[in-house]
Structures are given as C-alpha cells and as structure tokens.
Write a sequence for this structure.
C-alpha cells in the first residue's frame, strides 16, 4: 500500500480536497451574525406595530390595576394626572366619556391612528360603584420605523464588517494550529520521528499536540528497537550459519577426516538456531496476544527442579554449577509451560553472566500468599541506570552485543510477557561487581 502525502508549506495555501476548517468556521460565524441581523430587522420593522400595540395594552391593564389600588385614596387625582402625562392614558367617568377628535390623515392612503378604549367598574369605600373608561391612542409608528431603518442600515454595515473581521480572526486562530499539527503529522507518517508538534491556543489542541509528541517519541523508540533487533538477530544467525557452513565444507572436502567434534559443533549450532527461531516465535506470540493461558494446579517446585536438572546437564561440561534452595513443595494455579519458559530464560541469563565462579543459585521462598523465585548469579552486575531497560528485547547493557552461551538475548522480554500474563510481579536487584538477583513471584495455594 502506498500513501501519497502532499508537502506542507504555509498553512493558508495547503491543498485539500474538501473545504478547509478555516472557511467552514468563517462561514458558520458569518451565518450566525447574519441570522442575528435578520431577527433584528424582523422585530424592528415587520413586528414593530404589533409589538407596540401589545405594549400599550399591557400599560392599560397596569393603569387599571394602579387606579384600583388608589380608588379611595386622596392621591387619585395625582395618579390620573401622572398616567395622562407619562403614559398618555386618559381616564374619565364612563357616563361623561367622549373620545377625542383625532386629526385627519395628511395623506389619502394613510390610515387613521388606532385607539384602545376599556371601561372598568370600581367599588368605592362606601360600597357604591363607579365606572371609569380608560383611553389610549396607539401612536403612529411610521416615523419611528423610518428612524429605526436608518439606524439598522448603519448598524448592519458595521456588524457585517466587524462580524467578517471577527469570523476571519477566530477561524484563523482555530485552523492555524490544526494545520500545523497536520503538517507535522504528515512528516511523522513519512518516517520523520524527530518531528515536533507545537499546538497552542486551545486546551484540546495542546493536549492533542502533547499526545502526538508522545506517540512520535514511542514510535522513535520502536523503530530504534526494530533496527537493533534486526541487527542482533542477523548477528546471531550469521555466526552459527558460518560455523555450520565451514564445518560442512570441511567435511565435504575431507570426508575421511570427519570427527565427532565437527559433527557435534554443527548440531550445537543448529540447536542454537532452533532456539533463536523458537524465542522469536514465542515473543511474537506473546506480544500479539495470540498466546493464551492454560492454567492448571501443579507443583511449581517440582517443575523448577526438572528445569534445573535439564540445564545442569547441558552446562556441566562448561563447568557451571546450579543449586536449588527451598523448604517445601509449592503448588500454584498457572500455565506450567509459560512459567517454565520464563524460569528457563532466567536460568540461561544467569549462566551467561555468572562470572568466574560459574555458580548460579535458585532460591524459592514463601511470603504470605505469594511464592518468590530468585535466580542469583555472581557476575559483573548491572548499572542502576540500565536496570529499567533490561527487560526490553535485545537491550545491550554495555552497548556491545554479547553472544550468550545459551539462549538468544530475547529471554528477559519473554519473562516479562509471561509473568505479566499471570498478573505476577518480577524485578531485578543488582550491584556492579557483585552480581544480580532476578526474581518473579506468583500467588500460591
């Protein structure tokens, strides 16, 4: 599959198949401002007369309520005078009320002003009743509408200008960091893991930038590990293949001079190659999640004894000594194959770095409901700065590839995966010049 990426330049000229987010935001903001202006125009022109009538009716009802409260008060005349002066509402006794004569329209097609008349009966203090008529004129609003329209033209022009400017600035501020992140993401997709994401201006964009920076860092580590893994596997494959080929060539050229040592060397190197391939398949199965646990209750102590016995037979010719300390047999509920595999790799690691005494001690101890297995060597030890990384595949403590006496260099990574699958614990204690203690612990029954 090929991914075609377009180069990124200035954010404003990045070619895109669809409308850019900048212009989408710009359009939404401008449309929102246009909607507000349309609503403003609608209420200030088409609905202005109706709204004015509604307001006058409300004022008339309030005037009736106010008069009712003060119908027996000596201040009633002041209340009526104030209504006529401030609200232009005339109040007269109903029997004496006569609508005022309205001026004739100055234009033939112009309608006369509308009026509101409402009579209301009030009860006086002595129990008698009086009827008052409230009269209000709905003042013509044509002049008001013309004034408002002129104001709206001016306001509309100003708002369109400001809304356009504001929409452009906001859309640019939002789109610019996203476009920068997009450019950096394309560089990351091309394999530039040193690229940096610098999203600023908004919390979500900054968090996205930080997440992508973390992803770029992790991808860089993965790529470096991949290259180291290929280099180290190539080294481990090349050495035994070279030995096998040289001895096979010698046996081919001098068939009468074949010795058991030569054939044994070929078999040993084939075993080494087989071990490497098996470890690669095991780590791949563990990392991809294809490996499943098959838990059973079994004697962990007996399983350790058997593994130690097999390794002792292989290593005794080279002078290695393996000891096992324990007080009682312990049973656990676990996948026996995977736990044995993890322990096997810890033993091979200890043998490889056991030092001059060539002694490895395995100790089983019980702490509460957990059983702890320790594999102890007296080799060169590990620096504290290297301890967090030794569980990675092919991590090289001394930065020089050390070919193990047995095993492939993937062992500690297999230990990590197998113990994690059991929700167990693992670790290492080491001191330079004194050796290392690799351990793991599981719950026991």
């Amino acid at each position: 599959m090929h991914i075609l990426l377009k180069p990124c330049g200035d954010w404003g000229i990045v070619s895109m198949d669809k409308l850019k987010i900048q212009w989408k935001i710009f359009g939404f903001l401008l449309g929102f401002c246009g909607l507000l202006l349309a609503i403003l125009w609608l209420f200030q022109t088409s609905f202005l007369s109706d709204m004015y009538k509604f307001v006058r009716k409300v004022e008339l009802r309030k005037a009736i309520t106010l008069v009712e409260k003060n119908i027996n008060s000596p201040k009633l005349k002041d209340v009526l005078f104030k209504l006529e002066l401030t609200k232009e509402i005339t109040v007269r006794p109903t029997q004496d009320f006569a609508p005022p004569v309205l001026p004739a329209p100055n234009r033939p097609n112009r309608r006369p002003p509308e009026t509101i008349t409402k009579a209301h009966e009030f009860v006086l203090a002595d129990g008698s009743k009086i009827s008052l008529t409230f009269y209000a004129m709905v003042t013509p609003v044509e002049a008001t509408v013309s004034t408002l329209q002129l104001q709206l033209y001016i306001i509309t022009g100003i708002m369109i200008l400001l809304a356009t400017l504001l929409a452009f600035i906001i859309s640019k501020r939002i789109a610019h960091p996203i476009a920068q992140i997009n450019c950096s993401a394309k560089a990351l997709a091309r394999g530039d893991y040193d690229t940096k994401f610098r999203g600023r201006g908004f919390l979500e964009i900054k968090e996205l930038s930080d997440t992508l920076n973390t992803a770029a860092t992790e991808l860089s580590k993965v790529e470096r590990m991949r290259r180291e893994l290929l280099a180290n596997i190539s080294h481990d494959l090349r050495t035994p293949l070279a030995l096998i080929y040289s001895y096979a060539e010698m046996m081919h050229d001098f068939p009468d001079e074949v010795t058991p040592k030569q054939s044994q060397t070929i078999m040993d190197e084939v075993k080494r190659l087989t071990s490497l391939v098996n470890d690669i398949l095991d780590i791949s199965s563990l990392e991809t999640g294809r490996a499943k646990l098959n838990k059973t209750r079994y004697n962990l102590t007996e399983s350790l004894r058997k593994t130690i016995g097999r390794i002792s037979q292989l290593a005794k010719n080279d002078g290695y000594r393996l000891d096992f300390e324990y007080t009682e047999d312990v049973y656990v509920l676990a996948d026996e194959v995977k736990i044995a595999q993890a322990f096997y790799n810890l033993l091979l690691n200890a043998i490889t770095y056991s030092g001059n005494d060539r002694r490895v001690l395995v100790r089983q101890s019980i702490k509460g409901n957990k059983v702890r297995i320790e594999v102890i060597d007296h080799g060169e030890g590990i620096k504290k700065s290297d301890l967090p990384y030794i569980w990675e595949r092919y991590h090289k403590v001394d930065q020089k590839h050390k070919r193990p006496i047995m095993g492939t260099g993937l062992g500690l990574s297999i230990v990590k995966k197998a113990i994690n699958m059991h929700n167990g614990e693992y670790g290492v204690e080491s001191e330079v010049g004194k050796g290392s203690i690799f351990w793991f612990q599981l719950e026991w029954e």
In short: Confidence is low (pLDDT under 50) at residues 1-7, 9-17, 399-407.
